[in-house]
Amino acid sequence: MSSSDAAAVPFNGRLALLLAMAMFVLVVDTSIMNVSISAVVRDIDSTVSGIQSAIALEALVSAAFILIGSKVGDLIGRKRAYVIGLLCYAAGAIAMTLTQSLLPIIVFWALVGGLGASLLLPAMQSLIHGNFEGAAQARVYATVGGSAAIAAAVGPLIGGFITTFLSWRVAFALEALIIAVVLSGIKLVRDVPFTGSRKVDAVGAVLSVLGMGGIVIGILVWQEGGGPVAALLAVGVVGLGGLGFWLVRRKRQGKATLIDPGLFASKLFRLGVTGQMLQQIALGGTMIVLPIYLQMVLGYNALQAGLSIAPLSLSMFAVALLVGRRVGARRPANRILWGFALLSIGIVALLPLVPRADSGWWLLGPLLVAGSGLGLLVSQLNNYTLSPISDERVSEAAGVNSAAGSFGLSFGLAFAGAIMLAALSLIFTSMAMGSTVLPADEKAQVAQVLEEDAEIMSNTALEELLVGQPEEIQAEIVRINTEARPLALQLALLIPLLAGVLGLLNGFRMRRLPDPKPGGSAEASLLG
How far apart are CA 503 and CA 501, in angstroms? Predict the structure, then answer.
């Protein structure tokens, strides 16, 4: 299509809106689950660790298969991959509306939904390229990217409101309804034929799944207190190391590779991808432990939890929007450095407040600071990473960038959540066994009950459970519960803090390099 033809074709606003709706559902899905943890646990009689594992697993599957999903879209057609991805997401949403146990959540929401995301994101990017041109294409990228940003900002509020006043099942039913509306307009989508090589790097695909999967699943198994943790982690490390060796070898032999290892020859790209992963580790860790803490310790419902963590997402959205419009002459590396600095400062400020906080208002200032830092990162990291990449390779580079971010998110969700719940278990046991009030023959039983049940209870709920026990026993168990939880949250917050500090060091390395010179399609970064 020539530029004159493109100018003559009217802008397909309905298609742009449907693509934005698909992206909104994709992003808001996890936010709804985060703020609804206690309600889901209560309604299906599960555990916090089980739901947290499902959330981490969904992000992991998306990360592990997104590069494969891009190739699958090339082979079966981008439009077909887009439809399959939407149907997978719809299956997960419908399962959430009907489930009565954890298993359907794991199978349909986490595994099937994660696979859907791995197909949907690359296909959507290709379809935008193929269905719009010139200014219209940039407009759609901005619309879809803006939809993702708005979903991230208001997701906790939407999820909290619907869960509190209706039900979390209603929220997921609405997701399925939106997907049905998006699919109703599928005839508007023109498929984009793939003209490149159809050879598949099957070994590279397997190694990428084993590498990312082994590490995150190893953490989740450790969290549950059993299984071959060391073996799973070893599989992950060997898988990632083997992937690097395999890709370099295949490249030298002139054979098809899952991703081009030559991308990592650029220091700018390596540093950018590393920053993206660290940012997502920090975001995932913070967004999983704070809702759990607010609902367990303060007894907040989903809406109160959503309102309490909203300053983080809203400030991230506002700063990203503001900075994105004011490019100016300031170096991207400096903004990234300040982003990680503010993120780290905000998390450090949370640590001493946690034991004293008796409401979500205590978190307001630190979350605004941390969210502002994340906003700086969101506005800069994708463009920093992809700007020096040529047009021919930007789609592949964006896929690697997305995979790194999704892996970081799943790692942060799994590791921070696991640290919090494992710390609770150890602290409960230690404090119960060391108590001078609890009878010696009851200490082990009390420790076991606290480990199994108290992780989902506020003090109010725990007091109701203890009705009939002697007053001094009730007071002692509540004291242990009260003192253990803030310490567990403080330990869990060290994960996003460590990611922030490592990001800060990575930012200093960025400053020592010249700024990237735009050489590729920066629009792809909006979906990164």
Answer: 5
DSSP string computed for 71-95:
HHHHHH-HHHHHHHHHHHHHHHHHH
CB contact at 8 A, 245 and 203: no
- Copy the structure tokens of residue 343: 């993120």
Is the Cβ–Cβ distance between 100 and 36 less than 8 Å? Answer: no
Q: CA torsion 412→413→419→425, rounded to 10°?
A: 180
Question: Taking the model in full, what pTM does it have?
Answer: 0.81
- The tokens 């490149």 sit on which residue? 196
CA–CA distance, 325 with 311 (Å, rounded to integer): 21
Tokens for 135? 């200014």
Residues 259 and 237 sit within 8 Å (Cβ to Cβ): no
Main-chain dihedrals φ then ψ at residue 83, nearest 5 degrees: -65, -45
Handedness of CA 113, 114, 120, 125 (dihedral sign): positive
Q: Measuring CA to CA, how many Å separate 466 from each of 271, 427, 449, 458, 481?
A: 53, 20, 11, 13, 13
pLDDT at 23: 85
CB atoms within 10 A of CB 244: 13
What SS3 string covers 405-439? HHHHHHHHHHHHHHHHHHHHHHHHHHHHHCCCCCC
Write out residues in the chain with pLDDT < 50, as ranges: 1-8, 454, 519-528
The answer to whether the beta carbons of residues 362 and 353 sit under 8 Å apart is: yes
The residue written with tokens 């809702």 in the block is: 291
pLDDT of 451 reads 59
> How many Å apart are CA 270 and CA 401, to the nearest integer?
10
What's the pLDDT score for residue 197?
64
Distance separating alpha carbons of residues 426 and 298, to the nearest angstrom: 21
Report whether 460 contacts 298 (CB < 8 A): no
pLDDT of residue 177: 94
Residues shown for the chain = 528
**Is the Cβ–Cβ distance between 284 and 407 less than 8 Å?**
no
pLDDT of residue 194: 65
Given a contact cutoff of 8 angstroms between Cβ atoms, the answer to whether 213 and 72 are in contact is: no
